[in-house]
Design brief:
By secondary structure, this protein is α+β, with helices and mostly antiparallel strands. It has a single domain, classed as Glutaredoxin (3-Layer(aba) Sandwich). 31% of the residues lie in helices and 20% in strands. The strands form two sheets. It has a four-stranded mixed β-sheet with strand order 2-1-3-4, covered by helices on one side. Helix 1 packs across helix 3. It is globular.
């Protein structure tokens, strides 16, 4: 399994997303490294299907996918129980990880 955290330099939220993701992986006993991918241009945004900073992809698929005709350098917000935030909460990430764990083929 490949986990990428995509971000752009200057994003104030990617550190929180990384900490929450590593927390959930640790709690679930998943020793999977998180690859940090700095997106620097709109061209890289298109190539990586970057939905905004921070974005988390498992096997190159965004955890919260969206259909888009173009990809640009921008910030991303997540709907949480406490309203909109600039990063996914531990609870949101845990829910997505549990969905992935149910599909054992995804974890290979």
């Amino acid at each position: 399994m490949k986990i990428d955290l995509l971000y752009f330099d200057g994003c104030p939220s990617w550190h929180n997303a990384l900490a929450n993701l590593e927390n959930v992986l640790d709690e679930e006993g998943l020793a999977i490294p998180v690859n940090l991918v700095e997106v620097k241009t709109d061209q890289e945004s298109s190539a990586t299907k970057f939905l905004g900073s921070p974005s988390i992809q498992f096997n190159e698929q965004d955890l919260w996918p969206e259909e888009r005709s173009s990809y640009l350098m921008n910030c991303r917000v997540y709907k949480t129980a406490d309203g909109l935030k600039g990063w996914p909460t531990v609870d949101l990430l845990r829910e997505k990880i549990h969905e992935l764990i149910k599909d054992k083929d995804t974890l290979k």
